[in-house]
Each structure stands twice: as C-alpha cells, then as structure tokens.
Amino acid sequence: MKRFVFPGSFDPITVGHQEIIERALLLCDELIIAVGENKEKKTMFSLKERMDFIEQTNQGNLKIKIDSYTGLTVDYCKKVKATALLRGLRNPSDFEFEKSIAQMNRKLSGIETVFLLTAPEYSFISSSIVREIINHKGDFSSLVPSAVRHP
Ligand code: ADP
After folding, report:
1. Which residue lies with its CA nearest to atom 23 of ligand 1?
2. CB within 6 Å of ligand 1 — which residues?
C-alpha cells in the first residue's frame, strides 16, 4: 500500500496544487493532503477554510484523505506510516529550497520525497500571488479551484 503525504500551507489551494494532486494519484494508493498548522505563521484563510476548500474540490475521491498537523512533517509521516512525501516543483528556486528539506527529512527519518514538476501553464501560480490579488480585489478565479471563496 503506497501512501503519499502532500504537506503544505494551502493558503489557499491553487489549480497548480490540484494538478499535482491529480497526477500523484496515479502513483500511489492513498494520498493524504496534510495542511500544516503553524500558530506563528499568520494565514489569510483559517485552517478549517483551507481544509474545506481541499475537501470540496476532491469530494468523492476515495483515495484522498485530508488532515492537519502541527510539528515536524517527518513526525507526522511516521505517525501515519507514509511511504513518501510529495512536493511540487515550479522553478530552480523551488528546487534549491526543496532539495535541502528533502535531504534533511531523509536523514532524520529515512523518508523519500517524490517531486512532480508543475505543468508549465501553472508554474507562475502560487498561493502568495493569489493572496496578493485578493488583497487588491482582483479576479483570482482562474488560479484556484471553484470551491475557494473570498475570505
Ligand atoms: P509550503 O508553505 O509548505 O510551501 P504551499 O502550500 O505553498 O506550502 O506548497 C505546497 C507544495 O505545493 C510545495 O511543494 C509547492 O512547491 C507546491 N506548489 C505550490 N504551487 C504550485 C504550483 N503552481 N504548481 C505545482 N506545485 C506547486
């Protein structure tokens, strides 16, 4: 049973995240989307809202579970007996950043990280850009799944 964990802030989930989710489903038996709860990090959307958007977007997909976690991602992975972590890569700076985290996670717990390259048409999309557009009252509808509502 291959169980992947896709950790992230998902503040909010974007079409880029969703495309990674759909492609990863071809590689695993179960995908846990694990929304990080970091009390020190101020988010635009509450934990419940972030989880609800993901839930509504993936309703009815029995291979997907949605959860939240605090603390180290590797500890969460151990708890749920994950086979691998899943991360998306958009560009070289994502790669540099993700490389050190993946190497550290593997050293800490032996867990592998599976990387999927973003589809080129989504490589400019990030939750922070979506938040910026929301803050300036712009139209962000093409960047997020339809379940994502205005804060
Ligand atoms: P974090 O705060 O952990 O970086 P994010 O929600 O920003 O959480 O991102 C979670 C994962 O999704 C990361 O691996 C990130 O690189 C990936 N990701 C973000 N945006 C995209 C996108 N447009 N295409 C593919 N992957 C993406």
Report:
1. 16
2. 8-10, 14, 16-17, 20, 87-88, 90, 94, 118, 122, 125-127
User: How far is 34 from 10, CA to CA, in rounded Å?
Assistant: 9
Q: Which fold has domain 3-149?
A: Rossmann fold (3.40.50)
Q: For ligand 1, what atom is nearest to the CA of residue 36?
A: 3
Q: How far apart are CA 150 and CA 141, in angstroms?
A: 10
Tens-place pLDDT, residues 61-72: 999 999 999 999
Is the CB of residue 105 less than 8 Å from the CB of residue 76? no
3-state class of 100 per DSSP?
Answer: helix
Domain segments of the chain as ranges: 3-149
